[in-house]
Amino acid sequence: MTLVAGVDSSTQSVKVVVRNADTGELLRQARAPHPDATEVDPEIWVAALSQALDGILDGVTAMSIAGQQHGMVVLDEHGEVIRPALLWNDTRSAQDALDLIDEEGGPEFWANAVGSVPVASFTVSKIRWLARCEPTQASRVAKLMLPHDYLSWRLAGKPDEFFTDCGDASGTGYWSPALNSYQPELVQRALGHVPQLPTVLGPSDAAYETSNGLILGAGTGDNMAAALGLNVQPGDVVVSLGTSGTAFAGSRVPSADPTGIVAGFADATGNFLPLVCTLNAARILDSTAAMLGVSLDRLGELALIAPSGAEGLVLIPYFDGERTPNLPDSHGSLHGITRTNFVDANIARAAVEGMLMGMAEAVQALEHQGVIAQRILIIGGAAANHAVAQIAATIFAQPVFIPAPDEYVALGAAKQAAWCAMEGSAPPTWNESDQTSAAPIAGHFNAAVLRAYQDYRGALYDLSR
Q1: Which of 185, 235, 350, 448 sits in a 20 to 30 Å window from 269, CA-based?
Q2: Which residues contact 410 (CB under 8 A, 6 or more apart)?
Q3: Could you tell me the residue range of the domain that residue 441 belongs to?
Q4: pTM of the prediction?
Q5: Tens digits of per-residue pLDDT, 138-148?
Q6: Number of domains, the chain
Q7: What does R_g of the chain's alpha carbons equal in angstroms?
Q8: Closest listed residue to residue 215, CA positions, set 408, 21, 431
Q9: 257 and 200, same structural domain?
Q10: CB–CB of 315/352 below 8 Å?
Q11: Taking 70 as the threshold, does the pLDDT of residue 437 lie above it?
Q12: Catalytic residue at 222?
């Protein structure tokens, strides 16, 4: 029996799964926490990964790491970390993204060049911030990596060359999915020079072999790994409700959205993954539950007591600013309050609906880019809440499905490792039947709820600019 491991190094934790490469059977798993921050010393990730891997890799042939996208990891000529990594959810580079857009010919230029228009989350914006705010540190950058690149490189013993895949590279803002190549002039424009960048491998290529014979795959970004774990096909739209919210779809053609709403990413198989990301998802429920003094399960129970539309209460869920729409300095707000509707059940319902409303708009944006959405697959930590599934069926116009709970990012990384180890022509489809046999969630689409949300949001923020 061939064993493979998949790693999900996310914002909040690192998770490891060990699976049978032939059947996908889960054999072992472990996890370790990450700090709640927007910048982190990468050595903390290394320590957490070491903790999670302790004793779990016996008999494992190959492993791949999927990591949070966009993070900026900068190293000097000696391979030492220069400063804490800026994570995707660090918005200090919002102005730098706008400056880059203005300097390089506008949004359409960027959409055509790299498939996406820069926002604060992207690596290209963060290296511009570094050049502007910490020029001495910027001048020392000799190697520029993403979080998953750094972890793989460290496990391999810091070799001279380091690697990534097209999926994670496509979230940097200086690699083109359509051309399958870096755009070094954009790195030069942002940072002031072009450091060593990861070599981009094919989806089933081996990146390294460790001293104890473990094969390391190229790895990928977390959203790409989730898509691989779910066997996403054209017509599927995945809504992932973790720390951030993402909506992404399988595609065989690259996308280029000059509005910047849809990021034109690559996936982990050689195809494409148009994606919309919001900064606010599961934490909206966490914050609301804490404010009401209830558990998340009780929050869900309260939300299901209230009617669709929460009797006019509408939550704009920009608790941490927002990435889509690009409003990094915005704030959350509650609207439509009356003496009769301002009760716990309606507040809970408005929180769940507010979280899902941004994702419904994300699905609409994907459709404007040519995605034909036939069904919605909801995953992530918040998907485990019963109310989320039931309420989602009233928010999305398409049938809503909740796949069986799994660590889909780590599962996708394990699939990549198996693909690499077994040298197949395509990744394994261990759980393919799971995604085709599930029944949709019962519910009735209520378009009025989304219209009310958009009316309040439109009164607060002019998105036409």
Answers
A1: 185
A2: 6, 7, 8, 15, 16, 17, 29, 66, 225, 229
A3: 231-402+431-465
A4: 0.89
A5: 999 999 999 99
A6: 2
A7: 21
A8: 21
A9: no
A10: no
A11: no
A12: yes
